[in-house]
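Q: My labmate handed me this sequence with no annotations at all. I'd like to see what the chain might look like in three dimensions before we decide whether it's worth expressing. Could you predict it?
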Amino acid sequence: MIREELQQIIFNAIGKEFKLSKEEIFLEHPENSDHGDYSTNVALILAKQLGKPPREVAEEIRSHILNTKYKILDTSIEKVEVAGPGFINFFFKKEFFLGELRQMVEQKEKYGSGKSKEKIIIEYSSPNIAKSFGIGHLRSTIIGQAIYNLYTFLGYKCIGINYPGDWGTPHGKILYQLYGKKLKGKTAKEQKKILNGLTIENLEKLYVDFHTELALNPAMEEGARAWFKKLEQNNAEARAIWEATRKISLREFERIYDLLNVKIDYTIGESFFSAKGEISPSRGGEDKMGQIVKEFKEKKLARESEGALIVPFPNDELPPAMLLKTDGVTTYFTRDLANMKYRMKRWKPSTIVIETGVEQTLHFKQVFLAARLAEIVDNEKLVHIAHGLYRSKEGKFSTRKGQTIHLEEVLSEAIERARTIIEESETTRGLSDKEKTEVARSVGIGGVKYNDLSQHPAGDIVFDWEKILNLKGNSGPYLQYTYARCKSIARKAGNSKFQIPNSKLQFSKEELDILRLAYRFPEVVKEAAEKFSPNVVATFVFEVAQAYNNFYNTHRVLQAEDKATKQSRLLLTAATAQIIKNSLSLLGIVAPERM
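A: Here is what I predict for the chain of 595 residues:
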């Protein structure tokens, strides 16, 4: 990657005596191309240490670079200049840009990919069972999938895990409601028939009703806890009801994942880590959470407090976390520690990434620190990506209050609106009704995904039908349409093989704007992965699409003034299409060839 090459030659020029690593040498892309393709302020930083004028230091660095025989100076760098108070600006040769274009069209989907062999676990989606897949579940699902895609693209061995919330006191509430309202007094056969006829909507209504009725009957809370304790003690009746609700939920989740084109490697819920979990017996019946409790006691990392078992943290760095409640029931904290231990033992990753809502930030700080104190993890990297929430204009959505906006409703509406748009588009002429349906699905769902992924994960998103389904401007459909436009031009040109133009060919400003953007794709992917921010890719690909459309609206491609110019512009079009397709693919968005 050329950025890393430049960092290395600058590092060589400044010498090793300065407390500045190669990675700390900051390079930016100037907004004004008159200031070069890369610029660094390293001379301004070093000047303070040397007590010399920044421009003098910058000139010394420039001279060292130019007087050293680097291959990059012959192949890629046109000139190196010192500007302003001491910035060093690098300008690329046309040959460099043209070489990158060649790689884009030759390497296709592999352009910008990496070869890392590290292993990384990414936990994402993880909805709670017995609830419909709401708009709030969308963020973790598609942000997590995009991060999985980014790291897979960079060569990492990725293990994607769906960790549904299928254990804990909330499920005691469902059991309490189901038994009391539908199953009590029924024979085992009648109960089975009732359970088999339940839907996810039935389960969600029971949950909402529980909290409505709780205000009038506070004793229900204790009843729910009793049912969950039965479940932890492997009571046959509680187990049967719970298994039915879990089966209904997982079936519903898979249906939504198919609609979103999301694929997750493993589904391992919280119940796996219960003392007598559904899956644990098949792996030897070990008591995973019991082991955690025992381990923390033996290492003197846990102590009793008012009848509960807690984990205090050194120097009160964090509030204490609870391993066991006063009634001996495990907690979310206990299960996540068991989860951490299991993942480290089974997969031995170098990094574990967990994508959940921002409200769980403290919880994961406690889990990560406790895991290190107990030596469950050592030098492995632990990352919590805390995404912001979807909110209504009145505030946070709440399943308890029945305020959830079902994701399927949003997706169906988006597809319907997309169908209306493509019916009016000239580029879909000749498509069958089935093909139009597929395009509408790609465009509608792509619009919903992009609306989310184009924003930083940490920010909240106010749910607004008009905004989320906006199909113009900085949107998924805009990018998809630009891609379809590029492919349409290629089809009209006969999809011929493009010759790399001679560097003596004169490029317009609009063409150079694309050239100076497109080559950045590999470093954009790397930055997005390092920051766990898919929006970095979204911002970049939107800029590329804008630059191409500006070029297209200014210059002719198929009717260019001469053959060499036509070939050059066809190559630029093909490269742009590939960059857009690769970017959308990383975001989990389909790039339709007609739209």
